Amino acid sequence: MVNEAAKGVTDRVIASTDLAREPLMVDGRAFRARRLDIAPGGVVPWHSHADRPAMILIASGEISEYASKQPGSPTAIAG
To answer: Is 7 helix (H, G, I), strand (E, B) or coil?
Structure first.
């Protein structure tokens, strides 16, 4: 994995739940809601979610994902 810095990205955790304190009792894990604002030309460097799944909601604009294993177009559009 490449350790590059994000470019043109602000990242803010807007909510977090410690899963060790929930009925699930999963130590060392949290469920987080984060807001990433990515400026035009901004880059979120390649990284893995192999051990921590993620869901993405695109509020406006579009984003291209180049490392996805999903078939089809790597561009997602809001809506």
So the answer is: strand
CA separation for the pair 14, 37 (Å, rounded) = 13
Q: Is 76 exposed, middle or buried (0-12, 13-18, 19+ CB in 10 A)?
A: middle
Question: What are the structure tokens assigned to 36, written together?
Answer: 């990433």
- Using alpha carbons only, what angle is made at residue 10 by residues 8 and 30, rounded to the nearest 5 degrees? 135
Residues 6+ apart with CB under 8 A from 37: 9, 10
State which residues of the chain have pLDDT below 50. Answer: none
- Reference 49, options 67, 36, 33; nearest CA is 67
Looking at the DSSP bridge assignments, the partners of residue 9 are 38
| pTM score, whole prediction | 0.62
